[in-house]
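Changelog excerpt

This revision adds worked examples to the README so contributors can see how folded entries look when concatenated. The first example is reproduced verbatim below.
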Amino acid sequence: MTDAIYDLDKKQVRAAFDHAAASYDAHAVLQREICDRMLERLDYVKHTPGTLLDAGAGTGYGTTSLRGRYPEAHLVALDLAESMLQIARPKPSLWQRISRAAPFSAVCADIDRLPLKTSSVDMVWSNLALQWCNDLNVSFAELHRVLAPNGLLMFSTFGPDTLKELRQAFNTVDGYSHVNRFVDMHDIGDVLVHAGFSTPVMDMEYITLTYDDLKTLMRELKAIGAHNVTAGRNPGLMGRARWQALETAYEKFRHEGRLPSTYEVIYGHAWVNQKTRTANGQQIIQMNIQRRRTEKGLP
C-alpha cells in the first residue's frame, strides 16, 4: 500500500485545493452526489454525537447538512486547504449569535496528524478525502485515536477502478504516474480492523460521468483540485504530440457519442468499542480494586 511512485506531495495537494477553492463548487457535482448518498445512510444509524468532526470538509457542503441534522453538536470542519475552509466557515445569523447555537470550529490540518485530543470526538464524517492520504494505516489509526468509545466513523473514498479509462489511456503514452493509487474495498476493511475499529460495514457502487471531449474532463478535474501530485509524475509539461496521443487513446472508450469517466465509490462505517490500546500501541488494562475496611478489634 506504499508504492513510492504514488506517494502524494501534501504541499502540492494543499496548493492545488487552495487554488481550486473558488471554482470547486461549480464543478463538484459528483462530490455533492456522493455526499447526499452518505447522508441518506445516516437515516439508518442511531447515533447522536456531542462533537462531530468533518474530516476533509472542503467548501462545506457536507458540513452544512451535518449542522442541520445535528444542531446541538459541536461541529469541527477540518481541511488541508485554508482557502476551502474560508468558504466552509458559516456566517451566523443574528438569531444564531444570540441564541447560543452549538459551537463551530474550522481547523486547517492533515487527517494524518490531527490536532485533537485523544477520545475527544463522538463521530467522524469524511466524504472523499481519504484518497488524498498516503497510508490508510496511519489515517485510520489517527481517526481511531480521536474517536471516543462508542464513536462512529463514516466515510467515502474511491476504489481502484476510478478513472480507469484515463489511466489506461495514459499508459499508452508514457511510463509516468498520472492517476492516484486507490485502495481496494476489502483492503480498507482489513486496515479498519487493524486500527482497532469494530464491525466495519463496506459497500461499493460505480458512477460514470460522460463528456463531450477529453479537454472538458481534464478541466473539470483541475477545477476541483484533483491534480496529479504523485511522486512519479512527469516533471515537465505535456507536449502537443503526447496530448494528441492521449486523446486518440481515450477515444477508444467513446460510447454513444460520449467519453466515459468511471468512479468506483466505496462507502464505509465502523465503530469504536472500549479502547484496549493507547495510540502508541500500549495495552490498557482495566482493574477493579476493592478496598476492605477493617475496624480495630474485628477480623
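The second example, added in the same revision:
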Amino acid sequence: MIKQVELVVIGASSGGLDVLITLLKTLPEHYRIPTVAVLHQRPNRSSGVPEMLAKYTHLQVQEPEDKQGIEAGCFYVAPPNYHLLIDSGKVFSLSLDAPLNFCRPSIDMAMESAAEVYQQHLVGCVLTGANADGAEGVRYIKENGGYVMVQEPAEATVDSMPKAAIAATEVDEILPMVRIAERLSSFAAGGQS
C-alpha cells in the first residue's frame, strides 16, 4: 500500500512522446506531484521536448540542471545524453557516465537512484519502448517499497519495455495510458492503493 506519493518517475522510449502527451493532457489541475520523465532521445542536440510537452499541461515542464532541487508542480524531462540521478537531499544530479544498456539517459539509473531516496513514497511507470531499460529500475523500486505501474503491452507502440518490466518484478498494475493518468491523479488527491 502506498500512502503518500512524493515523486513519480516515468520511463519511455519508442513512441514515448505520444504517450507522454496523452498523460499530460489527462492529468487534472490538482496534480502537482513532481514527475520525472526519462525519454530516450538522440544525443548531442537540443531536444525541444520540454517546449513541446508544455503545451499540454499546467505543470512547469523543464530539463533539470545539476544540483537543482525537486519541486511540486514540475514535470522534469531528462536532458539528452545525460544520466539523470536523484541524490539524497532530493536534488538532481547529471552524469556523463557511460551509457547503460546503450542508453544515456538510463531509465534504470534514474529509477534506482530515486528508489534509494524516496523508497515507499515513489511511483515508477514503464511505458512503450524497444529495449529492456526500466526493468531493473522497477524491480529496485519494488524492493524499496515503492509502487509500479506498466503500460498495457498491447497498447504500447513497442511492447518490449513494458514486457521486460512485467517479467522483472511483480508490478502493481498493468494499465492503458489513460488509466495510468487517472491512477496518478488519485494519488495526487490522496487516494491510496
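Reviewer comment on example two: Residues 137 and 148 are 10 Å apart (CA to CA). The chain has six helices and nine strands.
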